[in-house]
Design a protein that fits this description.
single chain; alpha/beta; D-Maltodextrin-Binding Protein, domain 2; 2 domains; 5-stranded mixed beta sheet; 3-stranded antiparallel beta sheet; disordered N terminus
């Protein structure tokens, strides 16, 4: 019978223990990797803001080791409900006025992570292609939501077409607050998404940036663009209970990074016009 030398037995025993130790280390490392890898669920709705997040923010998060999962919804309200109920972590398609409204109607606890690049609303030509040609009896289509109406009224006041009640806060104005209609223009309310197909039925149309983007409208045809008031800049939001998580600060840092801002400016250059407005604090 062949006998294994004592030194050989010791070596085999050593190698066996070494192998077990290596297996233990690999399993532990894999376990830690799984534990450290965090999935961020993004509730998206149609429009340029979710697209910008998935094309520019998500890859930067993935470079930091996160997994980004997109959950698509057909409208903003559904996306916000998903975040409120914990089905998703973040949404980037609403502004401060939207957030405050949903906090009230959904009894939610949405909080702002960071303000993000915003596409302003604008007046587009319908039957008329010059603001100077406005006259009594002309019509302007405006979305029938309270925020859309407010944006349209403020822009018309900036143009000198109407005068609004100065005692009413800008973010709360409605058509009832028109004190003077200097040009005799008539407001036609309709669903925002229905405005682009019907634009030739009115003299002018106020179209939100996201709707103009979805409809493929010619951005260079804009007759005038709004200067968004504070509450109209878009924001990334999550719920209050998640605000202390690391990914929240990482997303904020990306939106405020020089690299990301340059990517947004490059997109403006490709489009040939200032499509995106970058919040001042992010520059």
């Amino acid at each position: 019978m062949n006998k294994t030398p004592l030194g050989g037995r010791k070596m085999k025993k050593y190698l066996r223990y070494l192998g077990l130790a290596l297996i233990t280390l690999v399993v532990a490392a894999c376990g830690k990797q799984t534990e450290d890898t965090q999935t961020i669920k993004v509730a998206t709705s149609p429009g340029p803001y979710s697209i910008l997040f998935m094309e520019e923010v998500a890859p930067r998060l993935e470079e930091q080791g996160y997994t980004v999962e997109e959950i698509q919804f057909s409208e903003l309200r559904q996306a916000m409900i998903a975040v409120d109920e914990g089905e998703a972590d973040i949404n980037v398609d609403g502004n401060r006025l939207n957030t405050e409204s949903y906090n009230d109607t959904l009894d939610a606890s949405f909080e702002q992570i960071v303000r993000i690049p915003t596409v302003p609303a604008a007046i587009y030509p319908g039957q008329k292609d010059s603001l100077d040609d406005v006259e009594e009896g002309d019509t302007i289509a405006i979305g029938n939501g309270t925020v859309s109406m407010m944006r349209g009224l403020l822009l018309m006041q900036d143009l000198g077409w109407i005068t609004l009640n100065p005692d009413v806060e800008a973010a709360k104005v409605t058509a009832d607050d028109i004190e003077e209609n200097h040009v005799g223009i008539e407001i036609v309310e309709m669903q925002g998404a229905a405005i682009p197909p019907a634009i030739q039925d009115v003299s002018y149309a106020l179209v939100a940036g996201s709707i103009a983007y979805d409809a493929g409208m010619d951005l260079e045809s804009r007759l005038v663009t709004e200067e968004p008031i504070e509450g109209l800049l878009l924001e990334a939001i999550t719920t209050a209970d998640k605000m202390d998580q690391d990914w929240v600060e990482d997303i904020k840092a990306i939106y405020q990074s020089e690299d990301f801002n340059q990517a947004v400016l490059d997109r403006n250059e490709e489009i040939g016009t200032e499509f995106w407005i970058i919040p001042e604090e992010n520059q």
